[in-house]
Specification:
The chain has 5 helices and 4 strands; from the N terminus they run αβαααββαβ. The protein is mostly helical.
């Protein structure tokens, strides 16, 4: 019988393919694309996904080795600095690995324990994990739409 952790990781990995499959086909030229007057570019959203994964590893699952300055969260707007494709790919690869590493250590009981954050209040770790799954999928959808219909506005 599989553990809750194994099942939840399978769910997360499948949902995250909405993002990870896109990363393989994004070009450096796509990073500055925006949709109309929207505030965020493809590059910004990629960085944002990585930052939030790291924040979850640190703040929800307690990985004390994570050091993150969540610039996209702090600035709340695209500053135009997210234009290095390889750096962004490396960042989201590292954020994925950090989150996966700490999630793999969760016991069945851990998923029932509660955490409290200013962003979404008191939740069980299982409920909080649902937020990172949906967060990544949500922004992956934005990336897909912007990449398909957006234009570079420099």
């Amino acid at each position: 019988m599989r553990t809750k952790t194994q099942i939840l990781i399978e769910l997360w990995l499948e949902a995250r393919t909405r993002f990870s499959n896109q990363i393989e086909n994004i070009s450096e030229g796509d990073l500055q694309k925006r949709l109309g007057n929207s505030p965020n570019s493809v590059g910004f959203l990629i960085r944002h996904i990585g930052e939030v994964e790291l924040l979850f590893a640190k703040n929800v699952f307690g990985d004390t080795t994570v050091k993150v300055t969540a610039k996209t969260v702090i600035q709340k707007r695209d500053t135009g600095e997210w234009t290095d494709l390889e750096a962004l790919k490396d960042y989201v690869s590292q954020s994925f690995e950090k989150l996966e590493s700490i999630v793999e250590k969760q016991t069945n009981e851990d998923w029932e324990s509660t955490i409290s954050t200013k962003e979404f209040g008191v939740k069980t770790k299982a409920e909080a994990f649902g937020r990172i799954v949906s967060h990544t999928a949500y922004h992956a959808g934005q990336v897909a739409i912007i990449n398909k219909y957006g234009t570079n506005k420099i």
